[in-house]
């Protein structure tokens, strides 16, 4: 605990020398301000591998404090059920949440309901839940959600937003049966595969919703869908939620445009207004990113996205996904926004956005 206290104290005083050499990038974190944020869930794993982070002046800086200096006021953290190592466990989430609190940043928790990545291509049921029927899975979702959130609450962490599922375009908590070559041959439905059983998916989602509200009544629940530029894709999830009584507060979108980003970003911005008016819920960009090699293009994209999203009364915020992830190495994530441990020019878009009223 001693090292963590020192880290928190240092974080409070490292607001000098931010993303820009000329601006410390401080930002408001009031409960009503536009969310400028990042998912930095990889931080502790990167630290365990010896990675260090630096501001543009070369001063070593803890990653959460560095995000604050880059103009961000919010942090997003993923949680897995029983990961093979400690990273993205509830204990790991608590460690990162305490750092966010020390830096005065708001918090989003992203439940994957898996032991590993959950996204449109995979929503693998946690090993401990493998034999559960739909009712058993609903109980497990509720119990797991309450357990993680109660741990945070017991440590005086305030949670503003909670994702019940991650990129749930195909639903949640189902398997894909694969042949010997690894090719998916069929869906093994446990009640959460939205195309076979939309009602089952909604019941699982609602179990998570009710658990969130039981611990944090004021937290906003997000339903998170990829391909935010494709409105019909998004509606494939929102329509069943409407039909079967799904409960949520915010529509969350991902948008990962390529180098020719203008059309997809503009479509996403247009969709924000359309979705909010048609479904009665405001929208948040929960994930975005671009290849780190093209930092100038990434800056242009982010500056345009942030500028126009902040003008839209239906949009609540924008989060970059894992900007701190290193681009170098065989297993590197190429859509971060750091080089050699330092923020690239792309991150200046958040610093500039933080200065807007």
Our Rg estimate from Cα atoms comes to: 19 Å
Element order: H for helix, E for strand: HEHHEHEHEEEHEHEHEHEEEH
Cα distance spanning the termini? 38 Å
Tally of helical segments: 10
Count all strands and give the number.
12
* Major sheet strand order: 1-2-3-4-7-8-9-10
Task: Label the structural class.
Answer: alpha/beta
Mean pLDDT: 90
Q: Give the low-confidence spans.
A: 1-18, 20-28
Which features does this protein show?
357 residues; alpha/beta; eight-stranded parallel β-barrel; two-stranded antiparallel sheet; 12 strands; 17% strand
Structure characterization notes:
- The structure is a single chain.
- This protein is of the alpha/beta class and 357 residues long.
- 37% of the residues lie in helices and 17% in strands.
- It is built from ten helices and twelve strands.
- The protein has an eight-stranded parallel beta barrel, surrounded by seven helices. Strands 5-6 form a two-stranded antiparallel ribbon. Strands 11-12 form a two-stranded antiparallel sheet.
- α5 packs parallel to α6 and α8 packs parallel to α9.
- The radius of gyration is 19 Å and the shape is globular.
- 50% of the residues are buried.
- The N terminus is likely disordered.
């Amino acid at each position: 605990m001693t090292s963590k206290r020192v880290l928190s104290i240092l974080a409070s005083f490292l607001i000098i020398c931010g993303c820009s050499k000329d601006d410390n990038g401080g930002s408001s974190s009031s409960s009503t301000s536009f969310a400028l944020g990042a998912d930095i869930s990889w931080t502790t794993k990167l630290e365990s591998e010896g990675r260090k982070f630096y501001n543009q002046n070369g001063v070593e800086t803890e990653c959460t404090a560095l995000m604050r200096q880059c103009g961000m006021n919010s942090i997003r953290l993923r949680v897995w059920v029983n990961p093979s190592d400690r990273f993205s466990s509830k204990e790991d989430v608590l460690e990162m949440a305490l750092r966010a609190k020390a830096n005065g940043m708001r918090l989003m928790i992203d439940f994957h309901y898996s032991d590993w990545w959950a996204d449109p291509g995979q929503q693998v049921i946690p090993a401990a839940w493998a034999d559960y029927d739909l009712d058993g899975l609903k109980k497990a979702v509720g119990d797991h959600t309450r357990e993680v959130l109660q741990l945070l609450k017991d440590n005086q962490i305030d949670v503003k937003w909670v994702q019940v599922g991650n990129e749930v375009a195909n639903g949640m908590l189902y398997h894909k049966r694969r042949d010997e070559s690894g090719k998916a041959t069929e869906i093994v439905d446990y009640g959460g595969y939205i195309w076979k059983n939309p009602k089952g998916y909604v019941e699982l989602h609602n179990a998570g919703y009710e658990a969130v509200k039981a611990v944090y009544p004021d937290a906003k629940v997000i339903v998170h869908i990829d391909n935010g530029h494709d409105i019909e894709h998004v509606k494939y999830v929102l329509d069943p939620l409407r039909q079967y009584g799904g409960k949520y507060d915010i529509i969350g979108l991902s948008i990962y445009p390529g180098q020719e980003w203008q059309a997809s970003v503009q479509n996403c911005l247009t969709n924000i207004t359309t979705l909010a008016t048609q479904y009665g819920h405001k929208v948040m960009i929960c994930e975005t990113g671009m290849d780190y090699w093209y930092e100038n293009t990434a800056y242009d994209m982010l500056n345009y996205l942030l500028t126009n999203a902040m003008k839209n009364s239906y949009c609540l915020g924008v989060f970059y996904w894992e900007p701190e992830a290193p681009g170098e190495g065989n297993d590197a994530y190429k859509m971060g926004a750091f080089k050699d441990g330092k923020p690239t020019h792309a991150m200046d878009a958040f610093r500039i956005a933080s200065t807007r009223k």
